[in-house]
Design a protein that fits this description.
The protein is of the alpha+beta class. The chain folds into three domains: about 100 residues, no CATH class; about 70 residues, no CATH class; about 60 residues, no CATH class. It is built from nine helices and seven strands, in the order H-H-H-H-H-E-E-E-E-H-E-E-E-H-H-H. Strands 1-5-6-7-4-3-2 form a seven-stranded antiparallel beta sheet. The chain is extended and about 70 Å long. About 15% of the residues are buried.
């Protein structure tokens, strides 16, 4: 077993022990695990955890782990151990290079999207992903790829662009969303809400950016009217705030 496998197994084991086993619907480590029966929500959908809530719980579990004394570290917390090595022994942290941080989306499973084109109508090669058309200068000129499937890697936190690979793992490059979707920062949740508000109709390539701005403003004012204790702190709310700030920037900047 490689060092990376040991670290990843230890990480997911910690998440399971400190978080997953305490949540409704936990499946346990095997079919006869008693925790499976104890965590059964018995059809009560209100007990299920949403994706946004799970994201916050995982972040809290990791932060809590770093602040909890560890027997393998002589009963000090991981943060205290890190401070000792940094200040006491003058050791340097290992940072992930910036070029590798931009490739974190490659750790996820790829989606397969078929290249489409309607040359008789003047529509050049592209792919459709989550109701939006994506293409690039390279793909638009690659008529030989029409009908073939590409491997698409994406970050659900910013869908303005995705990365495309051929089946042979040869990178085709970055594909940009068309229309206003390429301009406005947005995540998958925000896009789904906008498309849902439009009656689940696929937007055209000339989709007006004012539609996104109008939607974001309505959602922002709706959340602002809610009591302070009931305002969401999930990533979706952060996306709304980010998009609102983007909308309020002066044109041309």
């Amino acid at each position: 077993m490689s060092a990376f496998s040991r670290i990843s197994n230890a990480f997911f084991g910690t998440i399971a022990n400190r978080l997953s086993s305490r949540l409704p619907g936990y499946n346990g480590s095997h079919p006869h695990d008693v925790r499976r029966a104890l965590s059964d929500p018995k059809g009560n959908l209100r007990l299920y955890v949403s994706l946004d809530e799970l994201d916050e719980l995982v972040e809290f579990a990791i932060a809590s782990y770093h602040g909890t004394p560890h027997t393998g570290l002589n009963n000090v917390t991981p943060l205290e151990a890190m401070e000792y090595f940094l200040r006491g022994r003058q050791q340097l942290l290992t940072w992930l290079p910036e070029r590798h941080r931009r490739n974190l989306c490659l750790l996820q499973s790829a989606r397969r999207c078929q290249v489409r084109a309607y040359l008789d109508k003047g529509v050049r090669p592209h792919i459709n992903l989550y109701g939006v058309r994506y293409t690039s200068d390279v793909l638009a000129c690659s008529t030989s790829l029409i009908g073939k499937r590409l491997l698409i890697y994406l970050s659900t936190d910013d869908l303005r662009s995705v990365r495309a690979f051929l089946d042979g793992r040869t990178e085709l490059g970055v594909l940009d969303a068309q229309g206003a979707w390429r301009v406005m920062p947005h995540n998958l949740k925000l896009r789904q809400e906008i498309l849902k508000a439009k009656g689940r109709r696929r937007p055209s390539a000339a989709f007006d950016a004012s539609r996104i701005e109008e939607y974001v403003r309505k959602k922002f004012h709706k959340k602002q009217r809610a009591p302070a204790g009931q305002r969401p702190t999930c990533p979706t709310w952060c996306a709304f705030s980010l998009a609102r700030r983007q909308c309020e920037r002066p044109r041309g900047r």
